[in-house]
């Protein structure tokens, strides 16, 4: 039950401007859950577990029900970047021959694959009982991934992602089983096409669902075990509950000033994206929602002195999260919503039928925010701008992820036509070398000044 009394109109107190931002405390438990997940994965070989490397869609409930361990390449690349430990893997990828302009997620994970093989070779060459040379300290985390037994590719809306696991497959000498799920782009050209509607949507949904069934057959064959359908239903039961709690908490941020910001939701991406579907996941998002509800009651703002309400479009910049959060806070700009947090990761839980979850899962995989037409992306952005009372949109033009940047100029024009100011930030998902901090600051200040001028004139 909600902690907010029906029809209550709590008054949020805005302390003096310049006070530090109030980040959610409840998200810290998510960090421990993520660390525990990776630590368990690192021990998979010692436990004799089967390991799948995959990228793209959240197929982890399928792997969980199949009784195998899963490694999400993008997630590990993001983790390294967020910890500022991406350098060794990226350098190794470049030394191996992968161009710096390649998706930095892919380049990081491919570099990890090379380091993983390098570490494994040390043990093989040393022989039983021999001392194994130490790994350089900066390479330790990047080389910890257990070698895969299987590859699964499930990428929507990104041509690089669709080839990523094929390249990994070659790195492991084309000797491991490999399954690819193909996702059609939702072009939105038919007369009845639209978000979650139209014949194109239903045809694509059925097409992907059929492939998920084939994936399950593939896993049954290579594990030698029947698929546990009850385990899948149970996992999706928990994921659906967690996803709904997350949506409810997002909706609370319509309050002015907002009780939580985009950077808090960034901290919650990993749990909803690839952690196991279980009661711990539900408890985590219940805790996040409860903290936000209590903030509304107590009048606690995420950003004391909030003057501007912004949206962030594009994929996250993992090695700059803290820096960006501080810069926006210093300018009294509350980044409230974003495509990456609000239009991704089980964001339409009503689609999930817990008794027969495959179709709803397939539909969520199609909802990758880079898999829509620009028209649909623009409409979703404008919807969020209206919902959260947005003054301006920050477009993150990601240098090595073209799929994330496609259509942003068109979307910017759509926002500007509604009187919403925009700016473009050039950066990257996991390679900090593409940043120019001073350019961000000058463009942000220019946009905020324009918002002030518009307010005075209207």
TrEMBL record:
Alphabetized UniProt keyword annotations: Iron, Iron-sulfur, Metal-binding
Entry keyword Metal-binding: yes
Sequence similarity: Belongs to the FldB/FldC dehydratase alpha/beta subunit family.
GO molecular function: iron-sulfur cluster binding; metal ion binding
Entry keyword Metal-binding: yes
Pfam families: HGD-D
Protein's name according to its UniProt entry: Benzoyl-CoA reductase/2-hydroxyglutaryl-CoA dehydratase subunit BcrC/BadD/HgdB
Parts forming coiled coils: none
């Amino acid at each position: 039950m909600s902690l907010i009394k029906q029809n209550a109109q709590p008054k949020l107190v805005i302390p003096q401007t310049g006070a530090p931002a109030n980040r959610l405390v409840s998200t810290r438990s998510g960090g421990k859950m993520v660390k525990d997940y990776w630590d368990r994965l690192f021990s998979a070989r010692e436990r004799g577990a089967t390991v799948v490397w995959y990228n793209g869609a959240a197929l982890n409930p399928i792997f969980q029900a199949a009784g195998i361990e899963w490694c999400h390449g993008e997630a590990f690349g993001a983790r390294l970047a967020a910890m500022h430990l991406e350098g060794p893997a990226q350098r190794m990828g470049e030394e191996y021959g992968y161009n710096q302009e390649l998706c930095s997620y892919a380049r990081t994970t491919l570099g990890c694959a090379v380091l993983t093989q390098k570490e494994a070779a040390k043990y093989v060459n040393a022989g039983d009982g021999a001392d194994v040379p130490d790994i350089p300290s900066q390479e330790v985390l990047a080389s910890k991934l257990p070698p895969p037994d299987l590859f699964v590719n499930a990428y929507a809306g990104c041509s690089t992602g669709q080839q990523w696991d094929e390249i990994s497959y070659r790195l492991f000498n084309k000797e491991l089983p490999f399954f690819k799920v193909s996702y059609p782009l939702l072009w939105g050209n038919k007369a009845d096409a639209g978000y979650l509607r139209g014949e194109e949507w239903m045809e694509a949904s059925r097409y992907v669902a059929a492939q998920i069934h084939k994936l399950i057959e593939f896993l049954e064959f290579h594990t030698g075990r029947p698929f546990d359908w009850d385990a899948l239903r149970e996992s999706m039961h928990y994921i659906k509950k967690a996803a709904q709690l997350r949506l409810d908490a997002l909706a609370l941020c319509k309050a002015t000033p907002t009780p939580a910001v985009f950077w808090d939701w960034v901290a919650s991406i990993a749990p909803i994206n690839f952690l196991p579907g279980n009661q711990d996941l539900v408890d985590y998002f219940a805790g996040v929602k409860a903290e936000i509800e209590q903030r509304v009651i107590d009048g606690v703002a995420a950003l004391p002195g909030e003057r501007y309400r912004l949206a962030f479009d594009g994929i996250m910049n993992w090695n700059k999260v803290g820096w960006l959060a501080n810069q926006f806070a210093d300018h009294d700009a509350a980044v409230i919503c974003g495509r990456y947090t609000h239009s991704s990761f089980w964001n339409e839980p009503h689609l999930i039928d817990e008794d027969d979850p495959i179709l709803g899962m397939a539909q969520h995989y199609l909802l990758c925010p880079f898999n829509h037409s620009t028209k649909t992306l623009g409409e979703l952005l404008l919807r969020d701008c209206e919902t959260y009372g947005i003054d301006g949109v920050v477009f993150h033009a990601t240098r090595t992820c073209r799929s994330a940047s496609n259509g942003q100029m068109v979307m910017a024009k759509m926002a500007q036509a509604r009187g919403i100011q925009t700016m473009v930030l050039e950066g990257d998902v996991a390679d900090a070398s593409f940043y120019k901090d001073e350019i961000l600051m000058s463009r942000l200040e220019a946009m905020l000044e324009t918002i002030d001028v518009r307010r005075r004139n209207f």
